[in-house]
DNA sequence: CCAAAAGTGTTCATACTACACCCATGG
DNA sequence: CCATGGGTGTAGTATGAACACTTTTGG
């Protein structure tokens, strides 16, 4: 082959930023201001610049969209999307998708890009009712599936929570991401027994009614072994 | 930002083709004929051309290097490597690494590219004794770790084997990839009980000494649940 | 005291570990 | 018959599922 066969491409990093709002998994979407797909909803993202790595580009976008220090969040690669027709512009655009996990954030800086950012329930999108720009429907589905698996084998669920959280908070993370109901007593034992998953603090948090819950913070472990079982509990009979 | 900030890059697909030879995990390496890194060992790979997807480029390279139909092998994405200095050429080159799993193949077509391909024991490389071109040491380490995890939760181990194989063949795959010794009786039960992992055939294979082993072929399942335990068996005391 | 949520104890089933033992074949 | 690797049985242990139960608060 000759070097002339080599395609020159643009490269982007796209972000699937997940959080939990009101017990449901949400993803941050932006309304596209420019062509292609102007007016359509899309994952936030942007072109690789200068001497950045792809990850650095993703971190820059994450900071721009959420205003949060990427070091405090969880960010991992999902994969490359390279279908030649995924972007209609003449110059090919290949993207690398990243999965970001964040606690419930205010949507602050619609600033820099003047694109309106909004949290959208993931369930509304996976059904296929709304179509996203580019191949972002597929990217979203892949990233959500990766997040679901990640929760089984790692302790990232704590990143969805505030710095101090109750065991019920943590359980609701699993229930929102997996869309199942988990057995409360068994979940409690599981996470308290797991080495380095959560660390008890002195504080407690009052609840609307009932016994106050102990507060915990994230522990040093990042792998969860044995993993969290994803089986739904049997629904209580009436 | 202006469109001028967007970097134009070349894109490659690099392959970590793993197989098992003589009970040890091997990877296919090529000696680079051209600069950069001429003379050094590297993972096979090549530039994205025309309207290919990255996966199609990987499949094309796989066919060129091994002469085998990619449809019969296992091929999955590992990730993107985009450090700006990973390739010294003035135009940036970003790569997407793929993990390929293959049965023991003859190294046929050193043909098209006139690069000498060779199977190399992975253990010799992970130690860091030999340095590979580009960031391929890191790519190899990531891909091998991905293969190790993949074996736990999927049935891909059968792809390392010939179409018909014995349970000992399959066990030796796990032992080679994981570098452990597994309990033979328990492994036997585990894989025969697992639904859709292996299907018995009518054949048997004579062994140098001892009872002939039943032959199996790969089953339809691709997930292995519950997963294979990675714990080494206690070494037999003498 | 009652409702509700936090947290603990107990039982049963399953699955894994270790290892004893039997089976089939070649020499 | 013996060595060797294939294959089965089984007892002890660990983990998880289900759910009864106790604890602690607000009203």
Structure in words:
Two copies of one chain form a homodimer. The first copy, chain A, is of the alpha+beta class. Chain A folds into two domains: 3-153, Alpha-Beta Complex (Nucleoside Triphosphate Pyrophosphohydrolase), CATH 3.90.79; 160-218, Winged helix-like DNA-binding domain superfamily/Winged helix DNA-binding domain (Arc Repressor Mutant, subunit A), CATH 1.10.10.10. Chain A is built from five helices and nine strands, in the order ββββαβββααααββ. The first copy, chain A, has helices at residues 54-66, 122-126, 136-153, 167-178, 184-193; strands at 8-21, 24-31, 41-42, 45-47, 74-81, 93-101, 117-121, 198-205, 213-218. The A-B interface holds A 1, 5-11, 46-55, 77, 79-80, 82-84, 91, 94, 96 and B 1, 5-11, 46-55, 77, 79-80, 82-84, 91, 94, 96. The structure holds a DNA duplex (27 and 27 nucleotides). Chains A, B: It comes from Actinokineospora auranticolor.
